[in-house]
């Protein structure tokens, strides 16, 4: 069981459900959580990554792109991040 807190894009409900069962505290990814402060990771769908070719956001938390990953894959990545 973990007490880790992750922000997840709203459209990733399957990932949210799985990580909640794994003991993660899951919050919605919104403007307040995008800086990553107090978060162990941010999980995004990857659907709208850098469409305009401009990157102007910064975050203090690692970002995991969920595109093409299963909830189990994301859980493994979170555990790898925790070990670093």
UniProtKB/TrEMBL annotation:
Pfam families reported for this sequence: UPF0180
InterPro entries xrefs: UPF0180
Name the UniProt record assigns to this protein: YkuS family protein
